[in-house]
Amino acid sequence: MKKLIYSFHTKGPSLFIFFTLVLLLIWFSMYLSPTPLAAPTSTRNLSEIIREVERKYLGDSAEGEMTMQIVTRHYTRKMSMEYWSKGKDRFLIKITSPAKDSGISTLKVNKEIWNYLPKVDRVIKIPTSMMGGSWMGSHITNDDLVKETQVAEDYTFKPLEDTKSILVVEGIPKPEATVVWGKIIYKILMPDLVPLEVSFFDEEDNKVRIIKYSEVKEIDGRKIPLKLEVLPLEKTDESTIIFYRNIRFGVFFKDNFFSLKSLKNR
Amino acid sequence: MAYRNLWRNKRRTGLTILAMVVASSMLMLAIAILNGMIFDLIGSATDQYTGHIRITRAGYPDDRDFYKSLDHYQPILDKVDRMPEVIAASPRLRSFGLFSLGNRTRAVEIMGIKPELEQKVTTFSKLLIHGTFISRPGQVVIGEVLARKLKAGVGSQLVYLTMAADGSIGNDLLTVAGIFKTGSLDHDGSLAMVSLSWLEDLLVYSGHIHEIAIRIKKAGLASETAKKMALQLSKPSIQVMSWQEILPAMKQALDFYDIYILIVLFILYLATGLGIINTFFMITYERSKEFGLMLSLGMTPREVRSLMVNEAGIMGIISMIFGGLLGLGLITLLYFRGLDLSAWVTPVSYLGATMQPVLHTKFSWQGIIYPITFLVVTSIASAYIPAWRASKLDPVQALRRI
């Protein structure tokens, strides 16, 4: 007994720590992995998931830098930009290089897009007829900028595949919605809601574009893919690749930050 | 004797000749006006914008891909200019983009041109309602509808925003030099012209154009000339199109119009011919007593027949001369003055062509020679039937008639 007590006292600290650790781990694990215990994803609101996925880079307020590599049959370009965003409706991008385009800014407020052109010192509103046009010569359309945050509202979703780690969701436009795509399919990594691949279909159900996400990093508690590739399928030799850098969330902006005036001065 | 006979009853002969003169000159005028309408239609479809023949890179007309351009086009231009059929050739570079003025933005298509050449090919420079045509880089002419939508006037500064050939963002200011009105909503609402060199710089696309618009001497022979041109240029990478191919709907409309004109002309000729026949029948009837006398005095029926046919022939020739002169005069008058129907009709825009409500005549030799030949032939032929009847008269019966 004495031996036992001794042994407990001599070996005690290590055993105590061991048991404590085990207990802690069991206790922690209940909190660390809540998802398998939570309700299955199919019953969760898919619109909420898509909204969350689409707002991956934006959050409530964010800023960051991105480089865009555009490869087309006729030119290859690399552009650097800075961006700021607040909520789902406000977005400001400024080109920092190449020198020729430096200073050109795009402001998105609600559903409108404005471009500031420093060379002529004018602000131009992009008309609705040009929304399908290319944004800054890339494979991203103006419409993408506007509608990206609208998808959750304009489409109805149903799950195609729902495993513990992967969720595949199909989005069909609501009859009254004015949208470009006939169908969108999201492949999402669960439970972190990280998009892996989004496929866009036209009205005839042909797959026309894929966006692939990779290089997932954790920033301010969010898992974010830092690389985004836009691949138009009818032009297999073309692509637009975006790299995100220096992303920060929870940035404070003044009220008039996303205004035409600040578009000019920024 | 036939000639002397004619002047025995001056009033009768005069009336007959007058009827024939009026009928034939009206026929000529109608032909000339119909010709003029076709000519105007082809003209406004081609002169205003398309040109008679267009040279592009093969495939460009199908998808209008910006990068399907013609580079090293100067040798093509030289070759085309040397062809005797060609009046002028104008190189054009096209670009889609945005015009912005204040907070108004419109999508437009800009055409970079060499003003001195374009003016020889199309009539844009003559359709200006305000200001002048472009004369230096940095100037632009826009359509009247576009100007209204942008609230732009001569001297306004427009921002042009587009994507350059290297993917960069082309943007610059343009000063409105003039505003044109073609009557076609497509052109008036979304077309603009700037100098070629300015657009080349903006698009970073020096030495490239999308098309060469060509004006030739005979618009109707555009297909043939285009074929000849393609043979001379003999390059598979370029495509030569006549306006008939560029505007197939217009060609169909014109083919249909041709049939329509043929029907109208048939009716007109028929009416004219019947009028002349009627006159001669009346004459024979009136003169049956006279013929009876001649026959009983020993003239053979054959002589009576030839007498009447000769009379008709002489009247035909006289009316041919006067009718031809009157017709020519009317055609000339309407060629210069135009028949203004704008009080009743507004301009009709159709398939990219605009029909103005002012009718102009178009002279053609066929339009003169056919009616007057027809006149003489009809008058002689229509004299033949009554003449034959006259020669068959029983002299006793004829003399008895009061």
Task: Describe the protein's architecture and organization.
The complex is a heterodimer of chains A (266) and B (402). Chain A has 266 residues and is an alpha+beta fold. Helices cover 21% and strands 42% of the residues of chain A. A 13-stranded antiparallel β-sheet of chain A has the order 6-5-4-3-2-1-13-12-11-10-9-8-7. Chain A is globular. Chain B has 402 residues and is α+β, with helices and mostly antiparallel strands. Chain B has 2 domains: 2-45 and 251-400, no CATH class; 59-236, no CATH class. In chain B, 55% of the residues lie in helices and 22% in strands. Chain B has 15 helices and 16 strands. Chain B has helices at residues 2-6, 10-50, 60-63, 74-82, 115-121, 144-150, 185-190, 196-203, 222-233, 243-246, 248-286, 288-296, 301-337, 365-391, 395-400, and strands at 53-57, 70-71, 86-101, 104-113, 128-131, 139-143, 157-163, 169-180, 191-195, 208-209, 211-216, 238-242, 339-340, 348-350, 353-355, 358-359. In chain B, strands 3-4-9-6-8-7 form a 6-stranded mixed beta barrel, surrounded by 4 helices. Chain B has a two-stranded antiparallel sheet with strand order 2-10. Chain B is elongated. The mean pLDDT of chain B is 84. The interface between A and B is medium-sized, with 24 and 18 residues.
Give a short summary of the structure.
Chain A has helices at residues 2-32, 46-54, 142-147, 151-154, 260-265; strands at 61-71, 76-86, 90-97, 105-109, 112-117, 122-125, 155-162, 166-173, 183-189, 194-201, 207-219, 222-232, 239-249. Chain A has 266 residues and is of the alpha+beta class.
